[in-house]
Write a structure and sequence with these properties.
The chain is an alpha+beta fold and 112 residues long. Helix content is 12%, strand content 19%. The longest helix has 7 residues, at 27-33. The termini are far apart.
Length: 112
Amino acid sequence: MPIIKILPHPEYCPQGTEIQALPGTTICEALLDHEIEIEHACDMSCACTTCHVIVRSGLESLNEATEEEEDLLDKAWGLEPQSRLSCQARLAKQDLTIEIPRYTINHAREHH
C-alpha cells in the first residue's frame, strides 16, 4: 500500500503524519479515513476547490487531471504546478508527499 506523507498543517495535522491507503483510493478519501478532516464542501464531486492539495512528490504516479479539474484548480488559492483536487487524485502504488494549503476559497469552514 502506498504511504502518503502529509506535511505539517496548523489545523488539520499540526505535526504532520504518514498514512497508508489502498491504490485506487482518492487522496481525500484516504485523509478522511485517517481522521484528517480536509475540507470537501462539494462532497467530493469535483465542484469546488476546498480539497486542494499540493503534491510535493509522487505526482507522476497519480491519474491524470481531467479538464474539469484543471478548470476548477484555476480558482484555487495558492495554486502551484503540482496542485490537485484531492477528491479527484487517485493513488497508484507509489508513495506521495502532500501539502494542504493553509487557506481555501471558503470564507467559513464546514465540518463534515
